[in-house]
Amino acid sequence: MIKLYGASVSPYVRKVMVALAEKALPYEHVPVGPGDKSAAFLEASPLGKIPALSDGDFAIADSTAIATYLDEAYPANRLYLQTPKERAQVVFFDKFGDTLMTPTAGRIFFQRIGLPRFFGGVTDEAVVTTTIEKDLPPILNHLTRLLGDKAWLMGDRFTMADISCVCGFVNAKYAGWEPDAAQYPALTAWIARTLARPSFAKALAADRAMFPGQ
Ligand SMILES: N[C@@H](CCC(=O)N[C@@H](CS)C(=O)NCC(=O)O)C(=O)O
Question: How many CA atoms does the CB half-sphere of 172 hold within 13 Å?
């Protein structure tokens, strides 16, 4: 049985939850936080980061390492696609999501929710304002250009590109920010299309205890 370690509110854990659902793979969810000291988690994630996954005697951490493992081990409904060019493009978007979109939008969540709720800190709205007004627009504009008028980032195929890039928007929405629909009509329609998939609906349902009513 596949075991996924990590709290669902992490965008990187969410990414794996959505991938598992898209591939219709049954799994046990172990909702530990980063730094959990249980032996099974530390074996899968020696640095204590979430997500981590075990599948029988195999264990691995990092959302992309996990997702690429799942895509190779369980090839039905490929999320990274297969031709060299398509795969490279999905990996590009996956990294774009993980290293740019998610961490930048994540600053809003960290300032408004993570810091006060989990670290006893005080929100710095100046950081939130800079993130929204200065840091996010170039990323959103770039993503808008890359999306064009396609249904999904890779055209007519829903892939890890969409999953990875949309995961970061979710936490920002929990913290009260989402891109303006009038300014970014194609982008916001694509986010809504992505979030409407049963795989995302299932992953977001796991967050309800923390964010009731969202
Ligand atoms: N590149 C990693 C990032 C994972 C990550 O940074 N997870 C955060 C939670 S959202 C974490 O575990 N932070 C604790 C730490 O960095 O020690 C992935 O894609 O899985």
Answer: 23
- In order of their start, the domains of the chain are 2-73 (3.40.30.10), 84-205 (1.20.1050.10)
R_g of the chain, CA atoms, integer Å: 17
Q: What's the CA-to-centroid distance between 208 and ligand 1, angstroms? A: 21
**Distance, CA of 202 to CA of 99 (rounded, Å):** 24
Buried/exposed code over 158-185 (b: 16+ C-beta within 10 A; e: otherwise): bbbbbbbbbbbbbbbbbbebebeeeebe
Global pTM reads 0.96
- Which tokens belong to 15? 């990414």
Distance CA 190, CA 138 (A): 18
pLDDT tens column, 60-116: 999 999 999 999 999 999 999 999 999 999 999 999 999 999 999 999 999 999 999
Taking CA atoms only, the protein residue closest to ligand 1 atom 1 is 62
Beta bridge partners of 59: 54
